[in-house]
Fold this sequence. Notes:
The protein is an alpha+beta fold.
Amino acid sequence: MPCWLFLSRRGANLLPYIVVLMKIIKFIVLAFIAGYQTIPCCAQGQSLLRTSAYSWYGDSVIENGFKAFPLSSDELVSNYAFKEHRWKRRNDLSAYPQLNCRSSVEKAVYNMALDEMVNAIEPDSTFRTGKLWSGVWTRDVSYSVILSMAYMQPEVAMKSLLRKVNKNNCIIQDTGTGGAWPCSTDRLIWAVAAWEIYKVTGNKEWLNRIYPIIRNSVEDDFRVVYDSKTGLFRGESSFIDWREQSYPKWMQPADIYQSECLGTNAVHAQALTVLSNMARLTGDKAYAIHCDVEAKALRKAMNRELWLKDKGFYAQYLYGRNYGLLSPRSETLGEALCILFDVADTERQKTLARENPIQAYGAPVFFPYIEGQPPYHNDAVWPFVASYWGLASAKAGNENGVLNAIGSVYRAACMFTTDKENFVVETGSPYKTQINSDNMLWSLSGSISLVHRLLFGISYEEDRLVFKPFVPKVLSDTRELTGLKYRKSLLDIELIGYGNRIASFSLDGRSHGAFVPDTLTGKHRIKIVLTDNDLHKQSVHLVESVYSPMTPTVAMRGQQLSWTPVDRAVSYKIYKDGKSVATVSDRCHYDLTVPGEYQVIAVDAQDFASFASEPLLSGVAKQEYPFVVSIARDRNRKVDCTVNAPVAGWYAVDFLYANGNGSLTQDNKCCIRSLFVDNSFAGGVIFPQRGMNSWNDWGWSNKVSVQLKRGNNLFSLRFEKEDENMNIEVNGAELKQLRVIKINW
């Protein structure tokens, strides 16, 4: 073989490696140049945060030998995984607040978020959810508006929110299990976002437009999803809407509807407070008082039903069928909202900030993780959740929590030079998550909020702009934020020092309270000097990755429960009617001697528990009535049945049904009806979608607890105005059987 031919073939084989080598050399040269830039900042090369996974400096982020750094305030580069990642500003940002500080990372990440914010505005002046996700989604846009879009893009935020209102003047629940609302009920975060826009703008027309929308939606929720026994609202975990990612596999859509979740209830509590404020401003004082009473009652119920004293955080949710059990997982967004929305009192806020589990790459969506499920909500960190956690940690006074949250957001933004959606919790990589996108609206909104709302402490009230800065000591600096619009004024703000207490606040050189009134007009300069107070040292709960044991598969054979052994389990807890009655470690069976509803939980050597097994009834009295009927919005709007109760007391009522109008994951055709007993309203009954055209797939509806008298009781299933679903046109199901079960309340 000729030598030149050999070299030619060898060169062709080496070509991909040569290309990679050239990119690495190029990056090393850029890093060398950046390393010798003369930027007057003592913090530029200072380590601001070191975790076991990465180090965040004023001028770079380093992770596993890879480096990300700004070439300027308008360009950011990274060699993560030996690939070149680059952001370079493409939009004119001069109309937005400009940040000046010594940290080149802080400036570049901030400008990248502004740049991607402009990318996220569609030609019709609504927000795009992400680079890969077109359209407006209720929860995504609402959480983004609360973080920063209410004041950064008020007109776009208004138009986006109004896109999520249906023809019945109610908030649209556009995603969720089994046909959207009422399986999922976190649409009320829209109310909090709409109120934030009012506080920013003071627009009375906006207030009058949104007030009836929120009131209609809240009142429908009280009718259909409120649980008078616990005082909580039902519905899927807010934003965590991928069933098997956060619930046991045995739970059907109706079971998920029955769950009473931390984040969702925090949203309802704040929505009630918002509605109270709006009623007051619109002159409806009696309704304002009513909503305020309900908001306080809900916060009280959350602390009574969901707080885990031994863990120092709130439980993820209550779940089950006739009797509720607490899932003892933490849930970071929900915990953050409990701080920000004052569900937790001051001492409990500090406890939460200290005890909520955090890992090297940030606070996970929930902890511990579910074995056998890929990373997405499970086994993942999300930048927008980290931003909420950072704001909550600042409110609780936890400096370490704040640094971890900012570091989590900045590391991800720097390494991947975009505001991505989520990352694997153990690796910090986005590449093995189930779904992901660049330029995510709520991620970039959170990044902006960390500068404005956290460091500068900007907070909007009905008639003023308030400042409550929180600057960790290692981030001490002189920062300037110029061109912040507030009502009819334009503000240049200088922030000096560190801490969370203000030594002096001046407006145009004159001493002033730490706020700006809504009557201010024209251009003004604010100077804030912090006291450089050392914050009381509070720890954070750093953990390693933990996967809870698998859920036991339990069967009932005669008078005995039995289950297959669960890997890593060292014991099994037996629950009857929602309460622990026994623990076994030497066998996988349990003899039943008392009638009840039974479940089994596997526990490992670290005392981490599995989900509870599917509830099984043993020796419980029940009656079944044929109930063969097809119901739809325009027919069989009232169906009656007489139930003969052998004894007076509490009973659980449900229906065997089929709904083939949509899949488990898509569409909005959950069927809804109201149950009356002897002409008194007993509760909402829902028949979620079970699969497109799956009219032979039968399952049980949610359970409604009713108090029956001995003898005949008239049951009536009716279609009421509150029973409109998100589709409005299609609202039907096939019913096969009514079941009445005696319960021990």
